Amino acid sequence: MNDITSPSVSLSSRLKGETAAQHERMHRLMERGNPFSSREAYARFVAAQYLFQRDIEHLFADPAVRAAVPDLDSRGRQQASRDDLADLGAAVPEAPIASVGVSMPAALGWLYVSEGSTLGAAFLFKEAQARLGLSAEFGARNLAAYPEGRAQVWRRFVASLDSEQIPFADHDQVIAGANLAYDRFGELLQHHFQLN
């Protein structure tokens, strides 16, 4: 049996395994926040999403991040979240950018959390459509798939993670970055849904 921290285990596999508890914690926070109970509740989720996506897109200016993820400009949902808030008649929240000072390789961990949430947002998008009457053109842009489709864009990101450009020695820092990103999104959900 392979040790999960051995060089033979891919970075994407380690990220999935070593952040599984964090991923589950986000599910529980979302359940407690119940964002699809009303458009007002959903707007609280979008406010959290907007601030998190702003943190993510702050990382896009780093040349090392751009080199590691060549299609970076096609990613990120800050503007989509901002447009959704306008659709919902909700204020755009203000807060300091939490990713200031984050750089490679930890920045890849932050991107992993964001890209994973885009992949997993298919269910949330269906809920927004069915329960709140929202769409990719109104209110739920931040949950919509990329034009190329979720799976294809996710596979390209995983290929970037698992490329030889990301040396094994950097893997722990990428995972630490992912945990910090999960912590940040969890704090945002707790704040916007007023959860203890």
TrEMBL record:
Residues 1-20 are annotated as: Disordered. CDD domains: HemeO-bac. Residues 1-13 have a biased composition (Polar residues). Gene3D superfamilies: Heme oxygenase-like (1.20.910.10). This is Biliverdin-producing heme oxygenase.
